[in-house]
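Hey, I was hoping to borrow your eyes for a little while. I'm sending you its amino acid sequence along with the backbone structure tokens. Take your time with it, there's no hurry, and the full record follows here.
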Amino acid sequence: MVEWITTPGLTDYREAEAWMEARATAIAAGKAEECIWLVEHPPLYTAGTSAKLDDLTDPDRFPVFETRRGGQYTYHGPGQRVAYTLLNVGKRGHDVRAFVQDLEEWVIATLDTFNVKGEIREGRVGVWVTRPEKPLRPDGGLAEDKIAAIGIRLRKWVSFHGLSINVEPNLSHFDGIVPCGIAEHGVTSLVDLGLPVTMEDVDVALRQSFDSVFSEQA
């Protein structure tokens, strides 16, 4: 069984980290069920284990939290659905790379619910959408924007942290960082793509698509 928890309002980041660490420990000990925790945070930046200080271009704009998740700098804020994935990777194959690919597949399936084609790119973490209506890149390729970020940490083969999908955040808030260290591409959201999608719509899609990706593995 995977427990689903949705917390209304804005959740303090350090309180979220502490809760996740406690829950991951309990899952590893067999004292709690796996869990998907859906939250929103106040505006903030987080630095993963690969973060480069030069990518924090406006360090005084929002609070900056050092974390031990994988990845570089990312933004969290209102209008962005954060899905913390506290899952037992050990019983799901002991394959971290495959688990991250499953998270990507989960996001892509969720976006497909809204007829948005999410794609992954070699060497770039997260999920991307092409923007043919935008000017071509200098190399002649189509413009691409990031719509979802992924970054996890493991404790005794239990994952925590997870992913975020941009539903309707203030996209200018991403300007204070180089998101995930990638400067040559932009950031978008479901609403920015012209879709009248609510957070509740995304939550329903996450739940439905999760079952298609993960249930058979549990």
